[in-house]
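During the second half of the funding period, the structural biology subgroup turned its attention to how the target accommodates small molecules. The most pressing case was iron/sulfur cluster, which had performed well in the primary screen but for which no bound structure existed. We therefore specified the complex as follows and requested a full 3D prediction, including the ligand pose.
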Amino acid sequence: MEYKPIRKVVSGNYAAAYAAKHARVEVVAAYPITPQTSIIEKIAEFIANGEVENLEYVAVESEHSAMAACIGASAAGARTFTATSAQGLALMHEMLHWASGARLPVVMVDVNRAMAPPWSVWDDQTDSLAQRDTGWMQFYAENNQEVYDGVLMAFKIAETVNLPAMVIESAFILSHTYDVVEMIPQELVDEFLPPRKPLYTITDFDNPISVGALGTPADYYEFRYKIQKAMEEAKKVIHEVGKEFGERFGRDYSQMIELYRTDDADFVFMGMGSLMGTVKQAVDVLREEGYKVGAAKVRWFRPFPSEELYELAKNVKGIAVLDRNFSFGQEGILFNEAKGVLYNTDAHPIIKNYIVGLGGRDFTVADVRKIAENMKAIIDKGELDVEVDWYHLKR
Amino acid sequence: MNTLFGEKKEGATKIVLKSVDEYPEAPVSLGTTLSNFTGDWRTFIPVIDDEKCVKCYICWKFCPEPAIFIREDGYVGVDYDYCKGCGICANECPTKAITMEKEEK
Ligand code: SF4
Ligand code: SF4
């Protein structure tokens, strides 16, 4: 069958719901929370209209239960999906470990939203990054198209390496903003994403098993190592699946870091999620003004694209890491990771952290220009002014 | 029987896995611990009277270990490597087909 995309104008949330539908998810357990709500509403609508077969929606009383129900469904062999945001994701935290520890490929969309207080419903990456060490893979979408594509790829990757995956979109900037999304005809999605083959199932009654059994000090350690091996394996699988996606549907995701005009760049802006759309636009403007700049969009934060970052760092004089998140007591989280990767290598570009856009504060092309001016001055002088720059702070 | 997690050896008190490659991908097991058999925790042992058993499998559902299995003839048996002697099965059995007796070791 020839690939002819179906173009629909949808919000990021609807893109997520359509992707879940096209992935033929069998169980969705979720608790609505702003700004995730419309993902769940749309899925409920698919069921009410009879547009989906074999999809069980489990209404639960909290996000903790939502993830618990997803774990049970996934352990029974179902393709399982949920969505959440901010405090809801935090409430799931304990259960996230149970999903990855039991090697269950649940896929979840997290709508990046600032943690309260002060109470906020706007964009900020700290909610998802706080789940860094739960054993979930993390994909950051730049636009609605990447939300849709990301969910489809996440299922394939998760079910190959038996680890859960999060697809992350920005609150309101993507979740509630409408844009054209090219959707894939169902038959072609089915070819790309065949039914799940579970590692084990609790519904094989002839061979009963316990999931989540006690691991004494004699056995716990080995299972941690196995998760790390699966994460390393995931880098290869991400590359292959991203490449296959490109060959089939024209959008290549084989690189974990998307490079934009970096070839001859003196310095690059590095960041994740929707803010990188603004950055790419700014790079075009700045190039015309004579700045030799590029953009490096980190698509996958877990597993972390260390090798790709190293290759990038070898060829530039500076990296401006734009963090829409913060780890209190230290610095931006992506910045922290990037420095950690580069320390034991011989690539040592000047690397500076700009904290931007927290809690939904506007981040524009003009802001990227100011950062470019600052970076250029630093590189010319050969030394940092400050390592961590609270860019928008009212001084 | 399912040996997803290692192999049970006669007379052993646990499954011993020597290298990381011997471990399965996922930590699933036959009982509530990964490699230790819980059978040696027992003081009392469930004894099942097939004559009283009505094959309701309530014991199978309630056994927390889960040590109860369904035999080929449809009656229930106990995997003594995992039965920890908690007595829940005896308590739940509607026909009192299970009695807990002091185990002679
Ligand atoms: S609960 Fe009692 S009657 Fe029911 S299957 Fe078990 S032993 Fe038999
Ligand atoms: S006593 Fe009965 S319920 Fe308890 S572990 Fe043994 S078989 Fe299971």
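Two results from this model are relevant to the next phase. The longest strand of chain B covers residues 44-48. Residues B 48, 53-59, 76, 93, 95, 97-98 surround iron/sulfur cluster (ligand 1) (CB under 6 Å).
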